[in-house]
Write a structure and sequence with these properties.
It contains two helices and four strands; from the N terminus they run E-E-H-H-E-E. It is elongated and about 65 Å long. The chain is α+β, with helices and mostly antiparallel strands and 114 residues long. The strands form two sheets. It has a two-stranded antiparallel sheet. The chain has a two-stranded antiparallel ribbon with strand order 3-4. The protein has a single domain, classed as Major capsid protein gp5 fold (2-Layer Sandwich).
Length: 114
């Protein structure tokens, strides 16, 4: 993912500027699942009673893995989380009462800071 930043590097020759774009790796999660090809064919013809349980189970597993990576970190993917301390002297802004107190190193908190 593009960070919008450039880092100066040595150019291949004199009187030429060089920079390299700073990017952040993008992790992909995958869960294998199988659907009956006949159900997919039926869906293409408008059928609504399909057995999508394997797809739903895979999506739920991916969602749990994403939550774990976001809220607990995932060092292998470069996702690090550091807890913040909330105190009565620095209450949460309006609209953020249910938000997590975690702060991600990959970007700003989802709630604006006062």
């Amino acid at each position: 993912m593009n960070t919008g930043r450039l880092t100066k590097i040595d150019a291949p020759m004199a009187d030429v500027g060089a920079r390299v774009r700073v990017v952040q790796p993008l992790a992909e999660l995958r869960v294998p699942f199988e659907l009956d090809i006949d159900d997919l064919d039926d869906a293409s013809r408008g059928a609504t009673e399909l057995d999508l349980d394997p797809l739903i189970a895979a999506a739920e597993r991916i969602a749990r893995a994403e939550d774990q990576a976001i809220f607990r970190g995932w060092s292998a993917a470069g996702i690090f989380v550091s807890p913040t301390v909330s105190s009565p002297s620095s209450p949460r802004p309006p609209g953020c009462s249910g938000a997590s107190t975690a702060r991600w190193s990959t970007g700003p908190s989802p709630c604006p800071r006062a």
